[in-house]
TrEMBL record:
One of its GO terms (biological process) is proteolysis. This is Modulator of FtsH protease HflK. The gene is hflK_1. Residues 20-178 form the Band domain. InterPro entries: Band7/mec-2_domain, Band_7, Band_7/SPFH_dom_sf, Stomatin_HflK_fam. CDD domains: SPFH_paraslipin (cd08829). Coiled coil: none annotated. It is found in: Membrane. One of its GO terms (cellular component) is plasma membrane. The keyword Lyase does not apply.
């Protein structure tokens, strides 16, 4: 009976030993093997054999892309404006032994590096430049931290700026500034419109005056020509003038009789004498 127990114990020991000596590493992972407390090797995906009870696997590292959220932080720009910025970084572990032995916690270390680099980059930019230069910030950010994390066996695939917005105080100030600018432009536009209207009105009056003057010249020429023709037809110096004045006198009386304020119009009985009276003849 005792012999059976011994056999079972030996079988259990063998099974446990084989289980400890065979390591199955899934795809997308790498395992770190320490021998007697010291790094020995890195197990790749598939079946691996280690020395039971001597080799240990204290670290299991993923080789898939890791997404790191970079928390929001306040950043001061070159012109002393406060903005809120955060980002997201995509990393990939290429050397697991460097990642686990090179830094205590590589995720926290990378987050701090990105935050520090982000403050430094935006601190050298003006507010307007920072708000409109996401691609530039991204490029400088990647360039600034890629070499640092490469020492930890980590590759920075990309880093994206998620949000970069002015603080609430700055937003209020910017909205007030924008409203003042719009009000200024409206005032300038209104003043320009009034100026153009005044210029156009003056041009209109000038053009009308010129045309009135030309019209008077034309009328004078027409009157002179009429007098010459009448004089030529009648052959007297006084009668043509009397004729034209009488014609215009009657025309004026006709217009007066058609006006709204005219109630009664009395025509002189002796029209030629009335015209002569106008000429003091």
């Amino acid at each position: 009976m005792e012999g059976l127990y011994v056999v079972l114990a030996l079988v259990a020991l063998v099974v446990i030993t084989i289980a400890k000596g065979v390591r199955i590493v899934p795809q997308g992972s790498k395992h770190i093997v320490q021998r007697l407390g010291k790094y020995h090797k890195t197990l790749t995906p598939g079946m691996n054999v280690v020395i039971p009870y001597v080799d240990q696997v204290p670290y299991k590292v993923t080789t898939k892309d890791i997404v790191l959220d970079i928390p929001s932080q306040e950043v001061i720009t070159q012109d002393n404006a406060t903005i809120i910025a955060n980002a997201v970084a995509y990393i990939n572990i290429v050397s697991p032994e460097k990642a686990v032995y090179g830094v205590e916690d590589y995720e926290i270390a990378i987050q701090n590096l990105v935050q520090t680099a982000l403050r430094s980059i935006i601190g050298e930019m003006s507010l307007d430049s920072a708000l409109s230069s996401r691609d530039l910030i991204k490029a400088k950010l990647k360039e600034g931290i890629s070499d640092d994390i490469a020492d930890w066996g980590i590759n920075l695939k990309t880093v994206e700026i998620q949000d970069i917005n002015p603080s609430q105080t700055m937003q209020a100030a910017m909205e007030e500034q924008a409203a003042a600018e719009r009000q200024r432009r409206a005032t300038v536009t209104r003043a320009e419109g009034e100026k153009q209207a005044a210029i156009l009105e003056a041009d209109g009056r000038l053009e009308a005056s010129k045309r009135d003057a030309k019209a008077q010249v034309v009328l004078a020429d027409a009157s002179r020509e009429a007098i010459e023709r009448v004089s030529s037809a009648i052959g007297e110096q006084e009668m043509p003038v009397m004729y034209l004045l009488g014609e215009r006198y009657i025309s004026a009386l006709s217009e007066l009789s058609q006006s709204d304020n005219a109630k009664n119009v009395i025509l002189p009985a002796d029209l030629p004498q009335a015209v002569k009276g106008l000429l003091n003849r």
